[in-house]
Design brief:
This protein is of the alpha+beta class. The protein has a single domain, classed as AF2212/PG0164-like (Elongation Factor Tu (Ef-tu), domain 3), CATH 2.40.30.100. Helix content is 18%, strand content 44%. The protein has three helices and seven strands. The protein has a seven-stranded antiparallel beta sheet, covered by helices on one side. The longest helix has 8 residues.
Length: 105
């Protein structure tokens, strides 16, 4: 499953700040439709994300019926991204192939 959207970087304060791009509702609904097959536990969804020419693997975090795309410092810093910046994102949800989870997809 491939999705594309534009989102605004948010900062999640805690012991250390974390940065995320919230996945819009329409795309989150699409992800929920395959979540049972895609998740490897706790509702997280493995994805390959693309921002411009930067590609990285991570997992979406479920939050209030939608998902958050975490942005590691190694992704944010070279692009100069901080809270409030808009970014274009392409996501590929990584579905397991038969045998990885014991389920056929």
């Amino acid at each position: 499953m491939e999705l594309a959207f534009t989102g605004t970087v948010i900062e999640w304060r805690g012991p250390a700040p974390y940065y995320f791009v919230p996945v819009p509702e329409e795309e989150s609904a699409d992800i929920r439709s395959v979540a049972v097959a895609a998740t490897y536990g706790w509702g997280v969804i493995p994805v390959t994300a693309h921002m411009g020419d930067t590609a990285f693997e991570t997992s979406l975090f479920p939050k209030d019926g939608a998902y958050l795309l975490p942005l590691k410092a190694a992704v944010r810093r070279p692009r100069g991204l901080s809270a409030g910046d808009d970014v274009a994102v392409r996501l590929t949800v990584r579905l397991p192939v038969h045998g990885e989870s014991g389920r056929a997809v």
